[in-house]
Each structure stands twice: as C-alpha cells, then as structure tokens.
Amino acid sequence: MLTVGDVFTSYGMIKALNGVTLSASEGEITCLLGPNGAGKTTLMFTIAGILRAQAGSIKFDGQSIERLSAAKVVEAGIALVPENRLVFPTMSVEENLEAGAFIRVAKDRAGVDDDIERMYMRFPVLKERREQMAGTLSGGEQQMLALARALMSRPRILLMDEPSVGLAPLIVEDIFQIIRDVNADGMTILLVEQNANMALSVADKFYLLEHGRVTFEGAPGELEQDEVIRRAYLGTE
Ligand SMILES: Nc1ncnc2c1ncn2[C@@H]1O[C@H](COP(=O)(O)OP(=O)(O)OP(=O)(O)O)[C@@H](O)[C@H]1O
Ligand SMILES: [Mg+2]
What we know:
Elements: E1 2-11, E2 14-24, E3 29-33, H1 40-47, E4 55-60, E5 63-64, H2 70-76, E6 78-81, H3 93-100, H4 109-122, H5 124-128, H6 139-151, E7 157-161, H7 169-184, E8 188-193, H8 196-202, E9 205-210, E10 213-218, H9 225-234
Parallel strand pairs: 3-8, 3-9, 6-7, 7-8
Antiparallel strand pairs: 1-2, 1-4, 4-5, 9-10
C-alpha cells in the first residue's frame, strides 16, 4: 500500500536518511525500530509531506506522493500521529477532533459530527473531557486524542511516531490495545517504537533503522528478541 524507495532526506548538511527502502502492506502493522537519531521521525515527516526528500520515491496505492504538500498527503489518505502527541494545547478536546477533519469540515459538517461521536464511543475518556483544554489532559489522554484526531481525517494508513514514550506501563498496555483494535477494524499502521517488546507483540513485519538506513527487515521471530532490543536501543556500533 505504501512503498518508500531509496529515500534521502537531509537537514542542510546533516544527512538523516541515506537511502531508505521499506513498504507497508494493507491491513498490517509494520513497525520501525531503531535508536535515537536513527531517522525514524525524519522518515515519518518525509512520508507525511512535512519534509521534502532530496531523492527517492514514495508511493501510496501506486500514486507518487513525494511532491505533495502535507495537506494533500492527508487528503490522499495518510494521517500522522506525531511524536510527543502535539495536540493543540489551548483548544478543547472537541476542537482538536474537528481540526483533524480540516480537509472536509466545510463540506461535510454532519459527517464530521458523526465521526466525533464515533471517536467518543471508542475513547470514552475524551467524551468526558470534550470541553477540557487539550493541554491539561494527562499524557495518556493526550495520546488518545492525538490518535483520535488523526482518525478524524478518515485515513487509510496511520503513521504513529512513538505513541508509548513517557507513559506508565499500564497506559502503554491501553494504547497498544487500541492500536490492535484500530488495526482489527482494517486500519493499516506504520508504527515507530522505542519499546521493542511491545512493538514486536503487534507487528506483522518490522524494520530496523540505523544511521538513516534499514539494516534488517523481517517478521517478529526472524531475529532473536535480545538482538532486536539491543539494536533498537543501541544500534550495531
Ligand atoms: N530540525 C533538524 N535540524 C537538524 N538536524 C536534525 C533536525 N531534526 C533531526 N535532525 C537530525 O537528524 C537525525 C535523525 O533525527 P530523527 O529525529 O529523525 O531521529 P529519530 O530516529 O526519530 O530519533 P528519536 O528516537 O530520538 O526520536 C539526527 O541526527 C538529528 O540530530
Ligand atoms: Mg523520533
């Protein structure tokens, strides 16, 4: 469904992605693991059209998307749940959800309202707090809001950047259960995680990214768990 072919992305002189090739298949959870600074967020931003690749191709459903603006990428059916949640802190929960539907709120008010109600069914904690300012939610609640906001664009694939970071273990379990549920409803997911154990527990396929390059790809079980964890945290060097 999504294929990234030999993508290079730099920040000025700093080369963050040095020829990344990977793919995510429809209906699957594909995980991307790798140490700090490996280029995981850079890859998510490049797919999402927030950063521009210097070279390489990004295809979604056979359509080239590497030249599209971030808004057009959302319209194409790709939604990013950014690292560190990044909800709009001074807007209410409900306003954040509406913002997630920015591509169609003007022409489909009733559909957006229906989707907000659907989000409240999936995330009851958000319903209780619909009027609350998003910046005052707990970390776990903000993660749920960031996910619900992304779903409001009715994506076909979700890019999730480290949804578990900084959350207590019980909350991490909740978040991963929601990831499983959303996937079971048919959503394709590309998931960046530092928590290799949790990632491997949900992944159909995973990639290791080190120094802006893919150094392993396979299914969970094809590489020993200890080795995955070591390389996901520390890299090979
Ligand atoms: N805005 C920026 N300007 C310059 N260099 C940057 C910028 N953002 C990231 N980098 C560099 O690009 C490389 C990849 O960073 P990136 O944020 O993609 O890593 P990451 O794998 O997401 O790491 P983490 O696990 O810490 O989130 C790093 O060397 C980083 O210092
Ligand atoms: Mg990152």
